[in-house]
Every structure is written in structure tokens, then in C-alpha cells.
Amino acid sequence: MAVRTITVTPFEGQKPGTSGLRKKTRVFRQPHYLECFVQAIFQAIGGAEGKTFVLGGDGRFHNDQAVQVILRMAAGQGAVRVIVGQGGILSTPAASHLIRLNGTDGGIILSASHNPGGEEADFGIKFNMPNGGPAPEAVTDAIHVATQGVRAYSLFDGPAIDLDRLGTVTLGSMEVQIVDPVADYADLMESLFDFDAIRGLFQAGFRMRFDAMCAVTGPYAKGILEDRLGAAPGTVVHATPLPDFGGMHPDPNPTWAHELMAEMMGAEAPDFGAASDGDGDRNMVLGRGIYVSPSDSLAVLAANANLAPGYAKGLAGVARSMPTSAAVDRVAEALGIEAFETPTGWKFFGNLMDAGRVTLCGEESFGTGSDHVREKDGLWAVLLWLNILAARGESVEAIMAAHWARFGRNYYSRHDFEAIETTKADAMIADLRGRLADLPGLEVEGMTIAAADDFAYTDPVDGSVSRNQGVRVVFEGGSRIVLRLSGTGTEGATLRLYLERYAPGPDGLGLDPQEALGPMIRAAHEIAGIAGHTGRTAPDVVT
Ligand code: G6P
Ligand code: ZN
């Protein structure tokens, strides 16, 4: 057996989006497609020679074969060692942790996150840096450039590795270390949170439901919640990761996690509910009869993080993506710490965490995390909530009410319009951008526009600039709408419309968000001409 070199023609469109390269599974299964992208990753990071990587994915269809291909390529190109999750499985936060724990030269994660999996659904791949975080734009751009020039790749022509057996084997001269995907991650969680207090909560009869949506967090949630923390057996449902996620759309939001929503809003609702996504980095949390919006969740976690041992010394600072509500900014102000506003994409938090400027980060897109890894982390957020619930001894509903009474409430919602024809969506955004300068002063729905711009971000650590990150229209009084096109879809364009209105209280804190945001919704449609451009009058998903 030897190293073989295969000549190829570059593929068009291998351009990483918000979070790596995502395409239909069938696109990835074209001969040499995955290989060309992996080759571009290796080229962009100066080759695989002498390097150590972490490798794993969320177990979706094609995960197993892709892992074998990448192992053969790494072995053929001189990598020293690859740490792989058993069965080729690693949640995204667990992969990030393994990169950091083992000081590797980075890692390759196979996932299309919350997108459905299967032969006719989606697949994805991304590279994470030695700090455990998603590659920043400079690197993803370099990968994209490299994809355009790939002419050949080499691989070690060896047998498939048995990934189910723990331990170390060799492939050519490369070591393949197959590790338990859960153990190190669970230890990390145990080091951050008061497991005794949470155990006490469950012992006292606290009931929880965790919906793993047939995706990667099943074994993690069972191992931690049921085995280590003593939650009742069966607390975790849809706990077995399946290649097609059992037909579920593993996106933890009210639309796709509707089974959990129904249970939590029902008469028999447990005290706490949570769900995670395909690769385990997103979370949705609910109390009995109450949905916690991700922006509010971030704010509550920031305000109460000191109750968990891992954060007892306080937070260095917090960061949120621009479309995320400003609820956490109010907490930061009260705590006297810095608050940063970044573009959408977890990769933008990496520098701030590496520089020690922020401890907690979050996004409206159901992502919350801290500097314990460099990815957002679904189960981490759930455990921090549990720690807070145990420490405060109050219900989710009571905690939310107290939070809003103290800080005021940022009513918030996101409306998604999916699978719009790309040309129409682009035209709508271009048209809006062209009119931004004319908007201030206009009155819409009884509100006056105070400012309008296209968000640009200068990274305070490395000075890099990212432009065109979303159009924001701010009204007098601080209410705002934000529009941007998703960077994670695989079919046409998805328009995201983000709506926010601040209510200082004490009155008017208990409204239905869609009602509280009614004028903003109408104003957004009027200002952007959504129906005229796209033919859409109502969103497909509301979060
Ligand atoms: C992924 C990224 C997040 C991002 C989300 C939505 O989960 O890791 O950082 O917020 O996608 O991105 P999109 O471009 O689809 O709005
Ligand atoms: Zn994800």
C-alpha cells in the first residue's frame, strides 16, 4: 500500500459560508468533491505534514465515509496523528474542546449543523483553528482561493479503519486515536458547574425534558443529565443519533422542536425543557408554559453566571451578534463590564475570547457559549441554566419575570422567509441599501426612523474589517429592524428579519412578542418592500 496522487479539476462554488461549506449531500458525494475541499484546507494552512488534527462529525448521512476519506488524505500527506471520536462522532463543542485539550493544529468537523440530514438533505465540513474556534474569514477566504486551484490530491491507499473500537491504530505512518466522544467533554462540564447542586435538584423531584432530535447530543445529554446528574431515565428523548435524524429537522426552535414546545406548554409540562441541534452547539430552553428567547437567555445567563463555580469570579465581558437583542447589553452595563456587538457568526467571537476580553457570548440563532471552548455549546447553556435554577430555587417563569422587572424587556422576534429566489432576495437587499441614506426622518407606522445603515465591524483585536453584515433601521426610542440574508442555507436565499422593541417597565412587560412587535413588523414590510420583491407576505419560521 502506498500514497497515491489523483489529478482533478477544481469545483466551482466551494466557498465557505457563515459556518463552513454546506451543500446538498449529493453534491458532496460527487467523486473528488470532498477531497478537493479537504485538499484546499490543507493547502490553506500550509500543508498537513507533521500536524495533528481532531476529526469527527454529527453522524449524519455520509459522515462515516467522509471520515475515512479525510483520514486517508491526512495519512497520505504526512499528518502525525488524528484524534477521532468513536464511530466518527463528535459534537461541535466537544471537537472544539478536544482541539484545545490536546493542543492540536486544528480540527475538521463534519456537519451541516441544524440543517436536515440524509441522502437528499444536507452535508457540511468546516475547519477549526488551534484555538478550537471556527476558521476566521482570512482563513476561509484562503481555503476558497485554494479550492479554485486544486489540481491534485494525494492519499494513503489503506484499508478503512474500524472507528468503533477505542484505542490507537496506525494508517501508514499516521496514528489514529479513537476516543470516547463524551468523556472529556463531560469532565469539562463537571469542572464548570455545581453538579452536586443540580443532582440535588433532580433528587428533590425536579423534572426535565431534553429533546436531542435524533442528533449528536443524545449520548452527551444522556451521559451527563441521566448518568452523572441523576435525571430520571427517559429525560432525554430522541437520544439515538441517526443518519437522517429520524426525519427530524434538528433545529431547536419553536417551529422545528414542536414536540417539546407542545409538552412544555401542556398541562403535564415538566419544570424545564431544552433541545439541541444536529451538531450540539445550539440550544433552546423553556420553562413550564414559557419559551425563553435566545437573546433573553443570554442576558439571564450573563446576569446569573456567577452562581456557577466556573464563573464565580465574574465575567470579563460579553459579546452578542448585531441582530441579537440588546438585553445582554443592559446586564453588562449593570455589571460594569464591556459588551461587544459583532457580525453574525461564532467565528467573530474567537479573537475577543482569546484576548480575554469576553467570557460569555451569544446569538439570536440559539447559540450561547463561553470561553471554555471556542464554539457555541448547547448542553453547556442547558447546564448553566440548571445550575442557576438549582442555586436560585425559582422557576424559569419567576426568573424571567424578575429579570424583566430589573432590566426592562427587549421584545424580540425573528421572521424567516425561506427558499426565496436568490436574484429576488439580492435585488431586495440592493434596493434597500440604495435607499438607506433617504430613510432617516421618514415616518412609518407612526414611528420616525432615526438612523439606517449597513453594519460594518472592525475587530478590536486584529483590526480586520467586515462590511455588509446586515441592514439596520433604528426608530426614535430605540426600536429597530434588521434585515440580512442567511449565510447557512443550501437552497435559494433565506431572508432574516429581526425585530426588537424595548419596554422599560414596570407596565407592559407581559405582552405576546408578536403583538408587541406588530408595528415593527408592518414597518419592516413597508420599508423593505418584501412582498413586492419576493411575493412573500408571511414568514415560514418565527422564533
Ligand atoms: C450558524 C453560525 C452562527 C449563526 C447561525 C445563523 O449556527 O454558527 O454563528 O448565527 O448559523 O447564521 P445565518 O447566516 O444563517 O443567519
Ligand atoms: Zn449547530
How does this model look, in words?
- This is phosphoglucomutase (alpha-D-glucose-1,6-bisphosphate-dependent).
- Belongs to the phosphohexose mutase family.
- One of its GO terms (molecular function) is magnesium ion binding.
- Residues 14-146, 184-286, 295-407 form the Alpha-D-phosphohexomutase alpha/beta/alpha domain.
- The chain is built from 18 helices and 27 strands.
- By secondary structure, it is of the alpha/beta class.
- The chain has 3 domains: 3-181, Alpha-D-Glucose-1,6-Bisphosphate, subunit A, domain 3 (Alpha-D-Glucose-1,6-Bisphosphate, Chain A, domain 3, 3-Layer(aba) Sandwich); 185-407, Alpha-D-Glucose-1,6-Bisphosphate, subunit A, domain 3 (Alpha-D-Glucose-1,6-Bisphosphate, Chain A, domain 3, 3-Layer(aba) Sandwich), CATH 3.40.120; 409-542, TATA-Binding Protein (2-Layer Sandwich).
- The strands form 6 sheets. Strands 2-6-5-3-4-9-8 form a 7-stranded mixed sheet, with helices on both faces. It has a 7-stranded antiparallel sheet with strand order 20-21-24-25-26-19-27. Strands 11-10-12-13-14 form a 5-stranded mixed sheet, sandwiched between helices.
- It binds 6-O-phosphono-alpha-D-glucopyranose (G6P) and zinc ion.
